[in-house]
Amino acid sequence: MHAETHSHDAHHHEEPGFWQKCIFSTDHKVVGIQYAVTALMFLFAGFSLMLMMRWQLAHPGQPIPFVGKILSHFLGEDMASKEGVMSPDLYNSFGAMHGTIMVFLAIVPLLTGAFGNYVMPLQIGAPDMAFPRLNMMSYMSYFFGGVVMLASFFVPGGAAKSGWTSYSPLATVNDMAHHPNGQTFWLIGMVFLITSSLLGSVNIITTIIQLRAKGLTWMRLPFFVWAQFVTAFLLLLAFPPLEAAGCLQLMDNSFGTSFFLPSGLVISGQKLHVAGGGSPLLWQHLFWFLAHPEVYVLILPAMGIVAEVIANNTRKPLWGYRSLVYASMVLGFLSFVVWAHHMFLTGMGVHIATFFQTTTMMISIPSVIILTALLISLWGGSIRFNTPMLFAVGFLPMFGIGGLTGLPLGFNASDIQLHDSYYVIGHFHYVVAPGTIFAIFAGIYYWYPKATGRMMNEYWGRIHFALSFLFMNLIFMPMFIQGLAGMSRRMYDGGLHYAEQAGVPGLSPFVLSLNKVISYAAFSLAVAQLPFIINFIWSIYYGKKVTSDNPWDATTLEWQTPTPPGHGNFDKEIEVFRGPYEYSVPNHARNFLPQNDPDKAHTPTHEHPVHG
Amino acid sequence: MNIPYTVDRREDTGLYNAKLGVWLFLASEVMLFGALFSSYILLRFGADVGTWPRHWLDYKLGAVNTIILIVSSVTNVIAWANLKLGSFSKYRAYQVLTMVCALTFLGIKSTEYYGKFHHFTIICKDGRIADGHIQKAETTADKVVIDGRWAPDMASIMDPPAKFEEQKIEIERKEIVEMHNYGPSRNNFTGLYFTLTGLHVLHIIGGIIVIFAIWGPLNGMWKTDPARYTNRVEVAGLFWSFVDMVWLFIFPTFYLL
């Protein structure tokens, strides 16, 4: 009898095979991990492209050690010489693809695909995403888009070389000899990535609205969930205009239309044989209509992660939770009306520039509110400085620098001086690299024990943080100096040619020497990631096992699941009784009170088992 | 594991998951087509005087297609309503009408496309301008034969007269300076026309596939889970109505303005 029941059970709970469990899984946690691993690899790939470019900037015209010859072998001698010297075309390709890979294939998928997928449903007490199969398709579309992007390196003429912004008409007239060319691949790749983001954002919004656990009202949501919610709306509504622009540019590139090609365009002394009448400005409007909200896609979920880690490790509620929520909503709305501050130099007119300058200044208000609330949250806390907390606290000044250096770029008058210089590069990298990537590291160290059941090594985590913090600043701080000195962002030889020209102000030897400082700091940063990579893989098998489902003594729902959570997530009914950050509640025995703890009286003598 | 609210409505939102999902998807679609219509506005306002064509499209065909799509939306709703009332056979019948309308729309659209690709404007060395539909059978390597007219000037090409005498015109190839059909690369009007209607046609095809799949291969669910099946029809219908609505913007923008 017993054996019969057992076999009956076994039949029903048959373990799915490898393919179903790991590749074609619809479980949000598996999809989240797929996103995380793929996006981390793309993060590394994007970083590697930049390392090769940094070598060229530090030592213009010298063969790249180790990899130069490999590049020459795989990409052809017109891309990299036999000795391994990077060609200007390859430099442009790598530059464009570094941006594309970092933004669309690494950071956004990590924030929304990985953390959004893995953590958000757990935090709202849901068994899965609302549309699990769409979730799988979202990952596959993302993966396929990534493959198309990588394949573009090997098409004749090489990958897209018109910057991650793909400004027309350059993007159309580059490589006109080849069809389809790298730009065609870029556009097709983007269509897949946009589809992926569409499926993901519909899923995230629906899940948050529909699948919140009983009692989990809007103002009881962890701030991370709010950040994901606003972010998903940005992705949902801002990406389609880029898809429209992509369709139009694809028509320009492949079917001879001239949506973005003005009349009388002359290329290499030859009049371009197209109908003309198009507008290069149109591309910029459509592109930045996506790409500015995209900036907030890059930062909002990062703020969400930092908020979770800070609340957990200061052992007190977040300061100004409602302000944080409202500020992120205002940020979301305003992010749709600031896009043209990227276009002050296009001659679109003083009145329009004034409008966008004003909205840009307005959007700094909610940003400052969020940063300030997070900063004040530290006040008076008994802070635990573990690795996630170090990265989260590191995020605050780094994002602060990135944000404040953005103000001169938002003002029309000062932007004219700074536009397209290394100052801009320094500014947005401070936001995204030591900003968002630090938040991502914080999130990885923080949620790793939930996903694997083991902790990452604390000692090497701290080394990873200290070295990353140092080298990130050594890379990006000198860029402000270079930019203020007038170094343009796209110079293949690091400004050498410009510095030697007679009759121009040029660049001082000091400014040029910073190229080497930045490059060697970048190489060191790469070495500093080794402890992380090894720690990440090593800890899966040998990390310290967690002794509880809630190793950080956290209050939010993701820590109320088994470790790692099984299919369906929770093994008990979840009902929520309070806000997300009830730490150090007065007159309570423990210094944290989980959201689903039914204890309403906070009676000090009453002990509750946390793990079922 | 069961995901809540796949069939039933959640009390505080009044929605089941897929209905919310499809509305969000449609919001995204509004932004997609909105961006394209914005591009139309920007390019048209930026066009030099006399470079934006008028009366290039046959508004009668457009009007017929508009009526057909509206009818298909109506039959689609009636089909869903019948399903809601429990009549599977009536749903099947009305949905056939929906699909027939959709296919008719595609037929008319492809006739229009075909006409545009075979419609040429020919500028001759002596400055004369011919305009008409190419006669493939009689056109050789030496000469081009079109059914059309001699236009007095380019202005007459950009805004052709409503009525003219059609004649057969033969032009030696060596006399031709430039010859261009009314395809997407002709100018930004045809470019936008083909891009927008092309994208719309892709949506129509997608819609037919989904409506057909629910109507035919996937209709076993009507027996196992009728509420969920009806929801599927509703969600697909929402998408279909949206596609219909996009056409209601395309028609006046390109055929009438």
Descriptive account of the structure:
- The complex is a heterodimer of chains A (612) and B (257).
- By secondary structure, chain A is mainly alpha-helical.
- Chain A has helices at residues 2-12, 18-23, 28-58, 68-75, 88-123, 132-151, 170-173, 182-210, 223-255, 280-314, 321-334, 350-377, 387-404, 407-410, 412-418, 422-452, 458-484, 496-500, 509-528, 530-542; strands spanning 266-267, 270-271.
- In chain A, 62% of the residues lie in helices and 1% in strands.
- A two-stranded antiparallel sheet of chain A has the order 1-2.
- Mean pLDDT of chain A is 92; it is low at 1-11 and 603-612.
- Chain B is elongated.
- In chain B, α3 (88-117) packs antiparallel against α5 (188-215) and α5 (188-215) runs antiparallel to α7 (226-256).
- At the A-B interface, α8, α9 and α10 of A face α1 and α5 of B.
Helix and strand topology:
The complex is a heterodimer of chains A (612) and B (257).
Chain A: H1 2-12, H2 18-23, H3 28-58, H4 68-75, H5 88-123, H6 132-151, H7 170-173, H8 182-210, H9 223-255, E1 266-267, E2 270-271, H10 280-314, H11 321-334, H12 350-377, H13 387-404, H14 407-410, H15 412-418, H16 422-452, H17 458-484, H18 496-500, H19 509-528, H20 530-542
Antiparallel strand pairs in A: 1-2
Helix pairs in contact in A: 3-5, 3-6, 3-19, 5-6, 5-8, 5-9, 5-10, 5-16, 6-8, 8-9, 9-10, 9-11, 10-12, 10-13, 10-16, 11-12, 12-13, 13-16, 13-17, 16-17, 17-19, 17-20
Chain B: H1 17-46, H2 59-84, H3 88-117, E1 119-124, E2 129-134, E3 143-151, H4 154-158, E4 167-172, E5 176-181, H5 188-215, H6 221-224, H7 226-256
Antiparallel strand pairs in B: 1-2, 1-5, 2-3, 3-4
Helix pairs in contact in B: 1-5, 1-7, 2-3, 2-7, 3-5, 5-7
In short:
The complex is a heterodimer of chains A (612) and B (257). Chain A is mainly α and 612 residues long. Chain A contains 20 helices and 2 strands.
The ordered H/E elements of chain A are HHHHHHHHHEEHHHHHHHHHHH
Globular, elongated, flat, extended or rod-shaped: what is the shape of chain A? globular
Biggest β-sheet of chain B: count, sense, barrel?
Answer: 5 strands, antiparallel
Envelope shape of chain B: elongated
How many strand units of chain B?
A: 5
